[in-house]
C-alpha cells in the first residue's frame, strides 16, 4: 500500500530546495535567515499563502490573522507554509475604480505562484475584486489551490434596526436628496454600517463571490457565510492549511475542481442567492483562463426558472449573519440539489452532493423553501438587440416588475461628469417614463468599467416620490445596489457600440420577457450615426503605464473584461534557474 504522506508526483519545490549544489544552497540559505531549520527542507510540500491583506482594503483586514491559522494547519499536516503579499484592491478606496486593477492583481498572482518554489497555494481574499483576480491568476498556473475568504462583517445597526452595506447607503443618499433624512443622521449611520472587520454583509459582490467559490468546490463548507469575526472562520483557516497539504500529496489541481460543471453550479447558485451581476464578468474571465467556453447565454439559460431562495439585501430583507445562522450555502444547495451537478469534485475530497449532506435549513424566512421563493424572477437576464449586439444584463430580482416591459425617451449623459453636472438641474427634460442613458463607463472608456450604472435619480423626481426608473449604461453596478438597471452593454460606447450614438429623445424599447433592448431608429440611420462616430472618435485619456496596456488590450463585458493576452494558461513549469 502506498504511503499517503508520499506525494504522487515529484514536488515542484524539490527543483529548488532539494538540490545539493550551488543552486540548492542559494535557495535554502536565504530562507534560513527567517529561522527555518534544516529539516523543513526535507521534501515536504511547500504551501504559498497569497495574502491580499491591507489597511487600505478594510474588508480584508482580518486576513493577516487568518494566515496564521492557515499556517498552523500546514505545519500540522507536515507542510512548509510561506506567506507572500499580493496587491490589494479596496473597492471603496481606489480610483478610478478597483476593477481597473483586477487583471493587474491576476497577473501578479499568476507570476508570483509561477516564479516561486511552491507546490500548492491558499488564496486569501475578500473585497470584491481580490478573490476573482486571485482565482484567475491561480487558474493560469494550475497548482493545487484553495480559497479562504475574509468573511462578512457583522450585521449593520442604526437607530434600532439592521442596515446593510451599500444597500442602505444608496437608500439614505436618496432620502437626503429627497429631503427625508438629515445630513447629521446620514453621517451618524457610517459607524453603525461597518462595525466589524470583514466584507459587505449584504449579498454584494464579495459575499456573492465567496459563496460561488463554495459552490465551485474551491473552499471548505461555510467559507461563504461565516462572519469574519467568528472563531469558526479561524478554525476553517486551520483546516484549510491541513487540506491543501493533502491536495498537493494527491496532486489534485485547480483545473480538476474548477470544471465546466463547477462553473454551471456557480451560475445556478448565483440565481438562487440573488448574487451580484459582477459574478458574470468574473466567471467569464475565470473560464477564459481555463479554456472553458462559457458564454453570456449560459447565464440566461442556466438561471432561467431558478427561484430566488435567499431573502438578503439588496434583493430582500436580511443580512449575511442571518444567512449563516439559517444554514448558509449548504442549506441553499440542499434545496437546489436537483439542478446542480452534485457529482462535482470539491477540495474537501468528497463530491458536492456529499458535502451538502442534508443541507439543513434553520430559518425558512431567510432561506426559502422551493414552493415559497422570495421572487419568481431571479438570476441574470441577458438582453440582445440593436442597442447591445453583444449583450447586456439586468438583475430582475433587484428591479421593479412594472418596468420590465418599458418604452421611453432617452435622456443621454455623455460621461459621468456630464451626468453629475446635469442630473439635478431643474430644467432637465425628464420624467418617470424617461430612460436614463450613461455613456463612457465601459472597460476602455472610463477606464475600468466602474460601478456607476445604478445612477441616482433626478432630485426633482425623487421629491415627487419616484424611486425607480429604467437606466442603461456600459458600466457595472455594485452587488449591493438595486433598481431597474441595464448594465454591461456590449460593445461599450467607447469601442463604437451603438450606445455611443443614442441621442436625447430617441425611443428605447425594453422587453424583459423577450430579453430585448432596442433603439427605435432605422438600420440606415443607425449605420450613418455609427459611421459619423468613427470619424469623430475621441482619443483615450490614458496614454502610458498599466492603464494604457489595459485600454489597448481589454476584452468587452461579454468576454469577462480580461486582457486579451491573459486568457489561457502558462502552467507551472519554469525550467531556467536564477543563477
Ligand atoms: Fe469591500 Fe464591499 S467594499 S467587500
Give an overview in words:
This protein has 579 residues and is an alpha/beta fold. It has a domain at 381-538: Glucose Oxidase, domain 1. It has helices spanning 14-17, 22-31, 63-76, 102-115, 130-139, 167-177, 183-193, 205-215, 231-250, 254-257, 260-273, 278-290, 296-303, 320-325, 328-335, 352-356, 416-422, 459-462, 523-536, 545-553, and strands at residues 46-51, 80-85, 120-125, 145-149, 156-158, 161-163, 381-383, 392-394, 405-413, 435-438, 470-473, 485-487, 507-511, 516-519. The chain has an eight-stranded mixed sheet with strand order 7-8-12-11-10-9-13-14. Strands 2-1-3-4 form a four-stranded parallel sheet, with helices on both faces. The mean pLDDT is 96. Bound molecules: FE2/S2 (inorganic) cluster. FE2/S2 (inorganic) cluster is lined by residues 59, 91-92, 127-128, 165, 199-200, 204, 206.
CATH topology value of the domain at 381-538: Glucose Oxidase, domain 1
CA radius of gyration is 24 Å
CATH C-level of the domain at 381-538: Alpha Beta
Indicate the overall shape.
globular
Through-space gap between termini: 40 Å
Total number of helices: 20
Strand content: 5-15%
Largest sheet: 8 strands, mixed
- Fourth CATH level, the homologous superfamily of the domain at 381-538: IlvD/EDD C-terminal domain-like
Strand order of the largest sheet: 7-8-12-11-10-9-13-14
CATH-scheme architecture of the domain at 381-538: 3-Layer(bba) Sandwich
Structural class: alpha/beta
Percent in helix: 25-40%
Number of strands: 14
Amino acid at each position: 500500500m502506498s504511503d499517503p504522506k508520499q506525494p504522487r508526483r515529484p514536488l515542484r519545490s524539490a527543483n529548488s530546495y532539494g538540490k545539493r549544489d550551488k543552486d540548492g544552497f542559494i535557495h535554502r540559505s536565504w530562507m534560513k535567515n527567517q529561522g527555518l531549520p534544516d529539516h523543513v527542507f526535507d521534501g515536504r510540500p511547500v504551501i504559498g499563502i497569497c495574502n491580499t491583506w491591507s489597511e487600505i482594503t478594510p474588508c480584508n483586514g482580518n486576513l493577516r490573522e487568518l494566515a496564521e491559522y492557515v499556517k498552523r494547519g500546514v505545519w500540522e499536516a507536515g507542510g512548509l507554509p510561506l506567506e507572500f503579499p499580493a496587491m490589494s484592491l479596496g473597492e471603496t478606496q481606489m480610483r478610478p475604480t478597483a476593477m481597473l486593477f483586477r487583471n493587474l492583481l491576476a497577473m501578479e498572482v499568476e507570476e508570483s505562484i509561477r516564479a516561486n518554489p511552491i507546490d500548492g497555494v491558499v488564496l486569501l481574499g475578500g473585497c470584491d475584486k481580490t478573490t476573482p483576480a486571485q482565482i484567475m491568476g491561480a487558474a493560469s498556473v494550475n497548482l493545487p489551490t484553495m480559497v479562504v475568504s475574509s468573511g462578512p462583517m457583522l450585521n449593520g445597526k442604526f437607530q434600532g434596526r439592521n442596515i446593510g452595506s451599500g444597500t442602505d447607503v444608496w437608500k439614505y443618499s436618496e432620502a437626503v436628496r429627497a429631503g427625508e433624512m438629515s445630513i447629521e443622521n446620514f453621517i451618524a449611520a457610517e459607524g453603525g454600517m461597518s462595525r466589524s472587520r470583514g466584507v459587505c454583509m449584504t449579498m454584494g459582490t464579495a459575499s456573492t463571490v465567496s459563496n460561488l467559490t463554495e459552490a465551485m468546490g474551491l473552499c471548505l463548507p461555510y467559507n461563504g457565510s461565516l462572519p469574519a469575526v467568528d472563531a469558526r472562520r479561524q478554525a476553517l483557516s486551520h483546516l484549510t492549511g491541513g487540506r491543501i497539504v493533502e491536495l498537493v500529496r494527491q496532486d489534485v489541481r485547480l483545473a480538476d475542481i474548477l470544471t465546466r460543471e463547477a462553473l454551471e453550479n456557480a451560475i445556478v447558485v448565483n440565481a438562487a442567492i440573488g448574487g451580484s451581476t459582477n459574478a458574470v464578468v468574473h466567471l467569464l474571465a475565470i473560464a477564459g483562463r481555463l479554456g472553458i467556453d462559457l458564454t453570456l447565454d449560459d447565464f440566461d439559460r442556466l438561471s432561467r426558472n431558478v427561484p430566488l431562495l435567499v431573502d438578503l439585501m439588496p434583493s430582500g430583507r436580511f443580512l449575511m449573519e442571518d444567512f449563516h445562522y439559517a444554514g448558509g450555502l449548504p442549506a441553499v444547495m440542499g434545496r437546489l440539489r436537483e439542478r446542480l451537478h452534485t457529482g462535482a469534485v470539491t477540495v474537501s475530497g468528497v463530491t458536492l452532493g456529499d458535502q451538502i449532506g442534508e443541507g439543513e435549513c434553520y430559518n425558512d424566512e431567510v432561506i426559502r423553501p422551493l414552493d415559497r421563493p422570495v421572487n419568481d424572477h431571479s438570476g441574470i437576464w441577458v438582453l440582445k438587440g440593436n442597442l447591445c449586439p453583444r449583450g447586456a444584463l439586468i438583475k430582475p430580482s433587484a428591479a421593479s416588475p412594472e418596468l420590465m416591459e418599458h418604452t421611453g425617451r432617452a435622456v443621454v449623459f455623455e460621461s459621468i461628469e456630464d451626468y453629475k453636472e446635469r442630473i439635478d438641474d431643474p430644467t432637465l427634460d425628464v420624467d418617470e417614463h424617461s430612460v436614463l442613458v450613461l455613456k463612457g463607463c465601459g472597460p476602455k472608456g472610463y477606464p475600468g468599467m466602474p460601478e456607476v450604472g445604478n445612477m441616482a435619480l433626478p432630485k426633482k423626481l425623487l421629491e415627487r416620490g419616484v424611486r425607480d426608473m429604467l437606466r442603461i449604461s456600459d458600466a457595472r453596478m455594485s452587488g449591493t445596489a438595486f433598481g431597474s438597471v441595464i448594465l454591461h452593454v456590449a460593445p461599450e460606447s467607447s469601442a463604437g457600440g451603438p450606445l455611443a450614438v443614442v441621442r436625447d429623445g430617441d425611443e428605447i424599447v425594453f422587453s424583459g420577457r423577450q430579453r430585448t433592448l432596442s433603439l427605435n431608429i432605422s438600420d440606415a440611420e443607425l449605420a450613418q450615426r455609427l459611421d459619423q462616430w468613427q470619424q469623430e472618435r475621441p482619443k483615450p485619456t490614458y496614454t502610458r503605464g498599466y492603464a494604457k496596456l489595459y485600454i489597448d488590450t481589454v476584452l468587452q463585458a461579454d468576454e469577462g473584461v480580461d486582457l486579451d493576452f491573459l486568457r489561457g494558461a502558462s502552467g507551472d513549469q519554469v525550467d531556467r534557474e536564477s543563477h
